[in-house]
Design brief:
Length: 118
Amino acid sequence: MAALLTVLRYIVDVSDTPEQEILTVLERGMLPNAREALMTIAERLRTEGREQGRKEGRKEGREENQRDMLLKLLERRFGALPEPVMERIRGAGIKQLDRWFDRGITARSLRAVFADEP
C-alpha cells in the first residue's frame, strides 16, 4: 500500500493531467476489490494536499503579518520609507523580517536597521 501511494503521488506530481482523471483511468483498469484501496489512497493524497496548503498558508500569513508590522514600526520611527526599502522588505523572508524588526526597535536610523545586510 505504501509503495502504491508513493507511485500515485509521483504520477500526480509529474503529470499535467488532473488528479481526478488519473484516478478514473486507474480505477477502470482495476479489479473491483482494488477500487476501495484506490479511493483510500486518493483520499490520503487529498488530505495531505490540504494539510500542506494549510501549512503554506500559515507561513505566508505569518510573513505578511511580520512584513506589515515592520513597515508600520519603521514608518512611525523614521517617516515615509523610500521605495528601495519597501521593495527590500517585500522580498524578505521571515527570519530577515524578524531580524530587521528587532533592530528597528532600537536603531537610531533607517540605515542602521539594514546594517551589515547585502
